[in-house]
Amino acid sequence: MLNLSQYANTVYKIIGAAMTVHEELSWGLLEAVYQEALHLELLDRGIDNQREKEIEVYYKQRLLDKKYRMDIVVGDIIVELKSVVNLSSVHRAQLCNYLRLTHKPLGLLINFGEASLIGERWAYDAETNECFIVDRYMEPISDADYVYLLDTDGTE
Please, which pLDDT band fits residue 155 given cuts at 50, 70 and 90? Predict the structure, then answer.
């Protein structure tokens, strides 16, 4: 089983930095603005991070030309930013795909598009190849409605 508690302090710091960015810039700007501001805020707090880190994709052990770019990566934590009215299953699936492709254990989905900052913590278990949502204590949310969260029934 994953030991996600080791990431709790770093996640707390990342969310704190995102809250500062949200307080400073307010809501509804372009995602790229929040990405740059969060990158700088993390650096100001002494937190190393990479912006727009590429993910290489392989098919049958052959490297594809298509690459994805993660918004921000802090160690083993992927930070996916949005500036939308509401987070959707597409946004969650994007983060889960990044976790699956990189085998990183934890991702944050942060939305700057609402009056209040919205954030979700997602974990990836490489053994089961599954993503699941976790609470602020890094524990799986056992009653999460994954049909709704990830649109696993294909209705969206």
Answer: very low
Which candidate, 113, 117, 131, 132, places its Cα nearest to that of 15? 117
Q: Over the chain, what is the mean pLDDT?
A: 93
Domain that holds residue 38: 4-150
- The structure tokens 């500062």 sit at 20
Which tokens go with 3?
């030991």
With a cut of 50, say whether residue 132 has pLDDT above it: yes
Residue 50 belongs to a domain: yes
Residue 155 domain flag: no
Using CB atoms within 10 Å of the CB of residue 53, give its burial: 0 to 12 exposed, 13 to 18 middle, 19+ buried: middle
pTM for this prediction:
0.91
Domain assignment present for 105 = yes
Residue 49 maps to a domain: yes
Count: domains in the chain:
1
The answer to whether 34 touches 108, Cβ cutoff 8 Å, is no
| CA 156 to centroid of chain Cα atoms | 21
Residue 104 has pLDDT above 60, yes or no: yes
